[in-house]
Amino acid sequence: MNGGSPIRVVVCEDDELVRAGYAAVLDAQPDMVVVGQAGDGAEAVSVIRDLRPDVAVMDIHMPGLSGIEVTARLAEPPDPHPVRVLVVTTFNLDEYVYEALRAGASGFLLKDAPLHEVIAGVRTVARGEALLAPAVTRRLIGEYALRIRPADPAPPPVHTEPLTGREHEVLLLMAEGLSNGEIAERMTIAHETVKTHVSRILTKLRLRDRVQAVVFAYRSGLVRQG
Question: What's the pTM?
Answer without folding.
Answer: 0.66
